[in-house]
Amino acid sequence: MTTTATTPATGSGVPGTAGPGRFLNSSIFGKTLHDNRHVLTVWALATGLLAMMYGGFYPQISADSMASVPEAMRGFGFDDAPSAAGYLQGAVFGLLVPLMATFYGAATGARMISADEESGYLDLLLAHPVGRTRLLLHRFAALTTGAIAIAAVVWAAMLAIRDTAELGTVSVGGFTAQAINLALLATLFGALATGLGAATGKSRATVFGTAAGLGVATYALHGFAPQIGADWLRHLTPYHYYIGGEPLKHGLQLGDATILSAAAAVLIAAGSLRLNRRDLAR
């Protein structure tokens, strides 16, 4: 009788890996990055190009044009627009770029657990020797890596136009500090969406809507709080710790960075705790 040799399956393999990503089959972190590489590339390029485009407008800005900025917009960083750092703090890092980071975190975080649970893939994945906490941490690490990549592209874009756009008064350290805070902001909302999905088992759309909605609400609160004479409300929003310390002018504020990092860690820890106790059966 002829015996056919079989190759034993690797216990640490991640199901669903094929093609160029097969070499990552023992790493949830690597597979998550591989599966999301196209989406991440689009987010990074779109955010970098947006920052570059608005940053490049600075030489065309005059004191008169800045004087015509509505008073309601002063809370979004336009209180010192004539200077290069002030202009970037408002037009670039105070408006669309932080919203892009917020939506990246909410959208990507909603895919980390919720999308797999909704499709039924999570049951297949956890049938292998993959712990729930390990899965969550690897997925979140991949999300964080994406946030760092987006911030790095924005940083490189700003340095690329620094001389031609007359932004030389902003130091490389200032741009670096702002990029770090941008990565932390995206990571925080990624932690919110990832933790929410892990804790509740809600659909991807619900998790994204909740996280993005909270992001927009706190963004508006941070911007409009001065108009209602309630500046203290800004301290309740993540955007205060993202840009309130004016990192373009003063460099990295360790206290602000620590608060953003700690908040993300708490959200992930809470989500992991609940995920390990929750019945995933539907």
Question: In summary, what is this structure?
Answer:
The protein is mainly α.
Strand and helix layout:
Blueprint: H1 28-35, H2 37-55, H3 63-67, H4 84-119, H5 121-126, H6 132-160, H7 172-200, H8 204-224, H9 238-243, H10 247-250, H11 254-277
Organism: Actinomadura rugatobispora
Pfam families: ABC2_membrane_2
Transmembrane segments: 39-61, 81-104, 140-161, 167-193, 205-225, 257-275
How many H/I helical runs? 11
| Number of E-state strands | 0
Average pLDDT over all residues: 86
Distance between the termini: 46 Å
Radius of gyration (CA) equals 21 Å
* Helix-strand sequence: HHHHHHHHHHH
Transmembrane segments: 39-61, 81-104, 140-161, 167-193, 205-225, 257-275
Keywords: Membrane, Transmembrane, Transmembrane helix
Pfam family, one: ABC2_membrane_2
Protein name: ABC transporter permease subunit
Description:
With 282 residues, this protein is an all-alpha fold. The chain has one domain. The protein is 66% helix and 0% strand. The chain is built from 11 helices and no strands. Helix 2 (37-55) packs antiparallel against helix 4, helix 2 packs parallel to helix 6 (132-160) and helix 7 packs across helix 8. The longest helix is centred in the middle third of the chain and has 36 residues, at 84-119. The protein is globular. The protein starts with 27 loop residues before the first helix and ends in a 5-residue tail after the last helix. Residues 1-12 and 15-25 have low confidence and may be disordered.
